[in-house]
Amino acid sequence: MTMTDVVEGKQKAKSWGKRLACVRSPLTKSRKHPAPTKLVSQEKAELEKLKQENQQLIQQNTELESTVAELKAKLEALEEEKAKATLEAEEKQSSSSDSRSNDGGYNSLLKAYLPDTDDKEPSTEVASAVPSDAISVMPSEVATQVDEVFGQRSGLAQANVKVFSQLLQKIADKRKPSEDKIEHSEEVADETENDSTVHVEEGIPLDELKETIEFPPIEDLLQEGSHRKDVPREAIRQLRRFITTLESMFPDNPYHNFRHSSAVSLKAMDFFHHLKSDVDKSRDVVDAGAVLANDPIAQFACVLASLVQDVSHPGVPNFIFGKENPDLALEYKGRCLVQQEAVRAVWRLLMEPTYCDLRAAIYHSEMEKQHFRSVFVRCVLASDLSDKELASSLARRWEEYYAVDDEEEPAGMSHESRATLLLESIAQASYMIHALQDWDVYRKWSGLLFVEVYQAHVIGRIRNPAESWNKGELYLFDNIVLVLSEKLATCDLFIPGSTEEYHKTGRSNRAKWKLMGQAFVEELLDRIVPFYDDP
């Protein structure tokens, strides 16, 4: 290779290099500068716009919350004014007549408990205001007369027998032949021989709680039996004996007694009567109301739970009962002591050989028995309004319920989950029903509960209820009674107009209590303290 060839090669390489540089330079330039100014400015503008929109939404939400708070305050003020006007009207009516105070007979109730020396003989009005199971705290001569005027306690038992007989007939109407029918006589023989209670009593009722109870398929619930079959007479006779025995298990507390529990059970039945029973076939979602309205076994279990949740009630709250019985509190994990005791006592009674025909009328198969037991345990334990875990679970599930789309059924909130939620809520609402009824009814039962707790205070079991009773009732309204009654009034599972009135009445009672609660407590004390201070 000559020098000339080398020079020519270098010149050619230099020429090709220039050409490549010309081709590369636009690409290289575009990589280094991807239209930065225009894109960044657009993104900043969009981001700023989103921030402004977000700030506006936050401000609107704050204004809405403020408006809602103002409306609630105005509503509360209006209810207080209405309550005050009502009370003033009642006072004028009372002062313009020679009759006793128009307060639903509550002053008379106090006189029945603590009669003045010049008013030994209770009138019919007095007796009608006094639950028959509360008379043990009265002076003996008054208790005797009130019991005579009030009538036999068995009238309440008969009312319960009628309700449960109707439920047994509904169960019979839906019953179909079952291949795994339980032989109840053999079942009981095995249980009594092993000296153990049926089902899962190796543990405690609390361990059986499930957030979702399994219900029969809605198709089975909607299907009627092939032919009507009356409930066997022996089953009805055993039912009558069962209810009468339950009545004898209740103590003579002023509040937690058979009369109060009967009012609770009858109200639970009333809630079931007002459920929407038809299924909307145009929607994919099965209404929880339709499930319960067509499930007589669940209804029987819930109404029975409402009747027996205070069986053998000690007359003090669970936390005091636990301190008095530390071994029992340890066994029941410190929760729902009274309620778990009630479950065990009533289940043992129902499993006795003498009630084999009654059991056969309630459930035919092991699956029906499991279903009955699950509902019964759930509803009895629901009556412990002070249990924080149960309250938290209920509140969370109601939030999930209202988050459900009308056309969809999200995971975790099936129709069975919603039916369980509704069942538990019915049990709780029935238990606190006195606070959702007329002012006279609410005040009467609140006074009886006060007397019961005060009796425990006198013998040193609990502190003086007068110290916190007024605030405690307001707390009960604000955090339990009105919260739950609003849910039942707006859940669209009941016949229109059947539950809204409860919430309205509850708000009215809350307003009246705020005005008159403290004076009411002081009136109770004025009459109770001298009675218990007497030697």
What percent of residues adopt helix (DSSP H or I)? 55-70%
Q: What portion of the residues fall into strands of 2 or more residues?
A: under 5%
Task: Give the overall average pLDDT.
Answer: 77
Shape: globular
The main β sheet shows up as: none
Query: Oligomeric state of the chains?
Result: single chain
* Low-confidence parts: 23-30, 94-152, 186-200
Task: Please explain how this structure is put together.
The protein contains 22 helices and no strands. The protein is mainly alpha-helical and 535 residues long. Helix 18 (388-402) packs across helix 19 (415-431) and helix 20 packs parallel to helix 22 (500-533).
Write the layout of secondary structure elements.
Layout: H1 3-32, H2 36-95, H3 106-113, H4 124-128, H5 140-150, H6 154-174, H7 184-193, H8 218-222, H9 233-249, H10 258-273, H11 288-293, H12 296-308, H13 318-324, H14 326-331, H15 337-350, H16 356-362, H17 366-382, H18 388-402, H19 415-431, H20 439-458, H21 469-490, H22 500-533
Helix pairs in contact: 2-22, 6-9, 6-10, 6-12, 9-16, 10-12, 10-19, 12-17, 12-19, 15-17, 17-19, 18-19, 19-21, 20-22, 21-22
Tags for this entry?
22 helices; 67% helix
Short description:
By secondary structure, this protein is mostly helical.
